[in-house]
Amino acid sequence: MSSESTEVWTGWYRDRSGAEAIAITTDGRHVAVRIRGTEYAGEGFAALTAADGRALDGCVLEWDLPLPVVADGASRRATLSCLLTLGERPDLSLTLHYGGAAFEACVAGGDFEGALDRVRRQLPPGTDFGRGLLQPA
Prior knowledge:
Blueprint: E1 7-15, E2 18-26, E3 31-35, E4 38-42, E5 49-50, E6 59-66, E7 69-71, E8 74-76, E9 79-86, E10 91-98, E11 101-108, H1 112-122, E12 127-129
Antiparallel strand pairs: 1-2, 1-6, 2-3, 3-4, 4-5, 6-9, 7-8, 7-12, 9-10, 10-11
């Protein structure tokens, strides 16, 4: 990933062995996270794998990220809270905190863009995200 276009989101990793702080990096197309010395990367959150092919599994990732919202031509601050459970079936929950309200979406399979689109459709008319997060490769 190019350091010029890389974003870093801080959060938490939890599994049966405990919890630890993490930093998730993305270049808009790929996601990566280092957990207990092992780097996991992939084109999406539900597809994070180590270099040896091991999938990230049996855990929870939780993070917040700033996501500006544009309403009436003005950009306003908002925060997207993300909770990803990786197991037999990945589950992703997104909550956008904006304008004193919470807009939520939960999806099976860990489809980040699909969940983000569900949140987008709940926003008031004339309101949209101020930028993209992950684009398909």
